[in-house]
Structures are given as C-alpha cells and as structure tokens.
Amino acid sequence: MRYGKIKDLREDRDLTQSDVAKMLGVNRSTYTMWELGDVNFPIEKLVKLAKIVHSNVEYILEINLDKRSINYPDDIDYKVIGNNLRKFRMMHRRTQKEFAKVLGIRQSSYSYYEEGRTRIPTDKLVTLAKTYHISINELCGIKKKKLTRMF
Length: 151
What we know:
This protein is mainly alpha-helical. It has helices at residues 5-12, 17-24, 28-36, 43-52, 57-60, 78-91, 96-103, 107-115, 122-132, 136-139. Helix 6 crosses helix 8 (107-115). The longest helix is centred in the middle third of the chain and has 14 residues, at 78-91.
C-alpha cells in the first residue's frame, strides 16, 4: 500500500527518515519500508506519525483532503477500534461474513478485529473506509468532523 503523503509531510517538517524512525521507536529501515509502501504501516505508528507531522491519518492515507491535525489518544486501543467496527458494520446492516468477504479474510479473523483481540491491518481499514465510507479517525475514537473525501 502506498502512503504518498508521508515523505512530503516529513520533508515539510525538515525531518530525515532517521529522525522520524527514532521518534516512532523503530529502525530507519523499517520506517523506510513504510514510507515506500513496501509493508503495512501499523495504525498505532501511523497515528504517532500524524502527531509528529501535525496532520491526520486519513490525509496521510489519501482518504481525504483535510490536512488538519487531529488530537488522537496517546494509545490506540484495539477494543475501541473493534467496538467502532461493530457499530459501523451494524449501521450498514452487514454481517461479519460480509465485511470479511470485502476484506478477503475469514469471518473468524474479522471477529478478532471486532473483539479487539488483534490489530486490524491498516490496508484493511482503508478498504473498509473506501467501501463503506467509514472514517478511520472515528474508528480510532475521534469525534466526527467534516472532512473532504478524495473518493
């Protein structure tokens, strides 16, 4: 998955890859792979990055055009995300099996996400956001704001 905004946001803050990697608590090579889109960027690190570059996750993921910073919680709680996944799924009157099919995973894997037992990969969050117009910021527990969607 490509994270096209990361490099620009980092450079706007005059930060090197090493600077950001250190702030995120990872090796520079790991951060470089995230910036290049070679591996999935964990949501908790993406939230930390959004704080560092004074932006928001949905802008970084190119889901909306609103670059404004959002006050994310210090720790991303998988149970909060899971409860919000369940809420959005029910709002859309879908079953776990239907959401799992959209994500290309088994229902049992999806149920772990809703139970907060495991972190949902960021690429799966993006798929849900684009398919069902679900806000990743809201999934992380941020109150709804008007944002300009890119899709």
